[in-house]
Amino acid sequence: MRCDDVQGLLEDYEAGELNGEPRRLVKQHLADCAECARLLGLLTAERAFLQENVRRREPPGALRQALDEALAAWERPVPTRRLTPGDLVRVAALVLCVVGIASLVWLFRSPEAPEPREEEQPAISADEELEDLLGEIALLTAEVDALTSRPVLWDDQMGRFPRLTAEINRSQEHLVQQDREAVAALTLAAARLREDAGDQAGSQARRDFVLAHMPDTLVAQTLILTKERSQP
Amino acid sequence: MLRDEAELIRQCCYGDVEARAALVDAHQALVYSLAWHMLANEEEVQDVFQTVFLSLFQYLDRIDPERGARAWLRRTTLNECFDRIKARSRRPARAENAAPVSTLDTPVLAAQKREVGRALRVALDALSPQYRATVVLHYMEGLKYTEIAEALDVSIETVRSRLKRARAELRKGLRKYY
Q1: Which chain B residues are closer than 8 Å to A58 by Cβ?
Q2: How far is B29 from chain A (nearest CA, A)?
Q3: Residue among B60, B138, B145 minimizing CB distance to A79
Q4: Phi, psi (5° rounding) for residue A98?
């Protein structure tokens, strides 16, 4: 093989993509040609460089934590998966095992012991819980209003202490954002309580709120998807 | 490994929280790294990371457990990246974390590595998204031409040609360091 032909195949050879007779011929040529061997060395070094710089990295811990929290908070129905023959065999084997074990347990059962009396738990009133939520929403909303109605003093001070004022504004915006998110979460919870109590208006209120205030979020999309799938 | 993952996927479909965490553990580096090398923007990378995994568990019932989730994750991550690249205007690449500097490196060597890493980042960013994806899949994931062709839905010849041209472009960008 000539050097021109070999050099045209060197990248595939170096990548392990050359097989059979072409690979054998290139390998044979490289044993006798210093120049082609040198070019192969450069390609190998280039690969090592790229692999070192274009490599896997672990996500930051905070990102993984945020994903875990989003998954934990995400409500979705269990998807119905297509059954495969393997699944049917596994289910049949499991049923046989359960029947067998249950039979053995029944045959060798001990005399029945008296069942313990269940203590009555105090029922949590849904109305009380809803009232608490609405109270908390009102408090947070008032706090948001107070924070966003900044005194004129701060605007006047902007010229005298711009960095300090900017820092205070940023902190305030952060607090306002946190409170707004809390209000949104609590409002959703309140609407859900109403819905659970059979108040259809609560269900509609929940959907309207999510669509109005959080339309682009995955939470909004999954809530709508969950609702659609649960409808007959 | 594939057998264990098949079981993990089945368990996830039945709502097993631990199986879900294990599935994320197995593939989080793939999704994050692929997005990082494609986008070079931490905010967008984190958005892709969240979107891809939430989509995974939303559509898990459509994945064949015996085939595993890797190929689906790879393709979905790339599609998310392609969409974002198409939508955004060009921004300068952030190369602060590009260089694999070791604590054993001397200050001069560490500085050199950072400089070269930054240059590679810029050169990589200058490639078209499809060429960049080909390079990342080949060098980061170690995929063969046939596997890259399947991941990008192109022919093997296209993969070979793109890799060849991408390497030429990267060399041009890094010429001063060779």
Answers
A1: 28-29, 32
A2: 5
A3: B60
A4: -65, -45
Question: How many CB atoms are located within 10 Å of the residue A155 CB?
Answer: 11
Could you say which of A64, A67, A81 has the minimum Cβ distance to residue B61?
Answer: A81
Six token digits for residue B3: 């057998």
Q: Does B43 touch chain A (CB under 8 A)?
A: no
Q: Are B138 and A57 in contact (CB < 8 Å)?
A: no
Q: What is the model's pTM?
A: 0.58
B87 interface with A at CB cutoff 8 Å = no
Question: Alpha carbon B73 to chain centroid distance?
Answer: 10
Angle at A73 between CA B63 and CA B61, to 5 degrees: 10
SS3 for A64?
helix
Phi and psi for B151 in degrees, rounded to 5? Answer: -65, -35
Q: What is the mean pLDDT of residues A22-31?
A: 94
CA atoms within 13 A on the CB side of B174: 25
> A16 — contact with chain B (CB < 8 Å)?
yes
Tokens standing for B131?
């060429």
Q: What is the ipTM of this complex?
A: 0.83
Over residues A66-89, the pLDDT tens digits come to 998 888 876 554 454 555 566 666
